[in-house]
């Protein structure tokens, strides 16, 4: 009933989109309530597993892109809190190891690495070494930030499109190798970034960046094509 009021109160396509989103969200909340009861009946879930199942269910109802746009920040914070408690509870860690792990978590939260589920890829962890290497190459802070965001954007595309983890990692490793060759070449920073961009697919709000398996542009599936109500 509420989504009908929303549709009536907003004109044209805006009203239809808002009503559709609200209806999908209500459906998601109802499905989540049922799923949580089922999860509890089967066996208690670890907090991290429960979060990822919740995210997957939400994407079924809202679509991957809309779900990410609305909840990515909240999900990142939840991943941080869960991981922080796991580190604190790990008795196998020394005090120095625990502090180092907590520092890495804070850095991952700051950089955006926790915005998506990066399980199955080493890309976010690789960023630590990459940042130092980029600094040693004399790249400007603006260029280093752009490269960092580019890497995390690739991980986000992988997560949103549900790409095969092994296949994606192979593509990413090839892209990373090609990118390093460009970064070490005697080129201006503008030319370096231009050549790196040619290794990637142009993106819009509906199209994700994915590494080309050959180092040349390839077409990636659109997130919006899978962003239909579950």
From TrEMBL:
<feature type="region of interest" description="Disordered">
    <location>
        <begin position="207"/>
        <end position="230"/>
    </location>
</feature>
<dbReference type="GO" id="GO:0006457">
    <property type="term" value="P:protein folding"/>
</dbReference>
<dbReference type="GO" id="GO:0051082">
    <property type="term" value="F:unfolded protein binding"/>
</dbReference>
<keyword id="KW-0442">Lipid degradation</keyword>
<dbReference type="GO" id="GO:0005886">
    <property type="term" value="C:plasma membrane"/>
</dbReference>
<protein>
    <recommendedName>
        <fullName>Lipase chaperone</fullName>
    </recommendedName>
</protein>
<dbReference type="Pfam" id="PF03280">
    <property type="entry name" value="Lipase_chap"/>
</dbReference>
<keyword id="KW-0812">Transmembrane</keyword>
<dbReference type="GO" id="GO:0016042">
    <property type="term" value="P:lipid catabolic process"/>
</dbReference>
<keyword id="KW-0472">Membrane</keyword>
<comment type="function">
    <text>May be involved in the folding of the extracellular lipase during its passage through the periplasm.</text>
</comment>
<keyword id="KW-0143">Chaperone</keyword>
<keyword id="KW-0997">Cell inner membrane</keyword>
<dbReference type="InterPro" id="IPR004961">
    <property type="entry name" value="Lipase_chaperone"/>
</dbReference>
<keyword id="KW-1133">Transmembrane helix</keyword>
<keyword id="KW-1003">Cell membrane</keyword>
<keyword id="KW-0443">Lipid metabolism</keyword>
<comment type="similarity">
    <text>Belongs to the lipase chaperone family.</text>
</comment>
